[in-house]
């Protein structure tokens, strides 16, 4: 979940200057917490596969990781995912992936 300014948050809730109910506030906090947990879990998984502590995964690292967690996934699919991630702007990815 990307960081929102207070004004953007209020507009996204459709409440304008009226305020936020307890239920809306709890929903916002829950969504933010879920996003943080997802990001932390993703970082933990990435770190487990970055065995050389380089801060990035090569294509071979990426393929090895998928062979371990999804051995029946076609290599073509793994390559498509890798290519997609390589072309994401840094602000949209959790990690650096470089082709070596």
From TrEMBL:
What InterPro entries does the record tag this protein with?
Answer: EF-hand-dom_pair (IPR011992), EF_hand_dom (IPR002048)
- Record-linked PROSITE patterns: EF_HAND_2
Domain EF-hand spans what residues?
37-72
Q: Which Gene3D superfamilies match?
A: EF-hand
Q: Note the superkingdom of the native organism.
A: Eukaryota
What name has this protein been given in UniProt? EF-hand calcium-binding domain-containing protein 11-like
């Amino acid at each position: 979940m990307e960081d929102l300014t207070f004004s953007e948050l209020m507009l996204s809730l459709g409440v304008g200057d009226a305020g936020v109910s307890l239920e809306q506030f709890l929903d916002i906090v829950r969504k933010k917490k879920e996003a943080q947990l997802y990001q932390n879990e993703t970082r933990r998984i990435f770190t487990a596969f970055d065995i050389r502590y380089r801060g990035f995964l090569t294509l071979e690292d990426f393929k090895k990781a998928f062979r371990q967690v999804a051995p029946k996934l076609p290599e073509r699919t793994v390559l498509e995912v890798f290519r997609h991630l390589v072309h994401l702007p840094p602000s949209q990815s959790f990690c650096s992936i470089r082709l070596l």
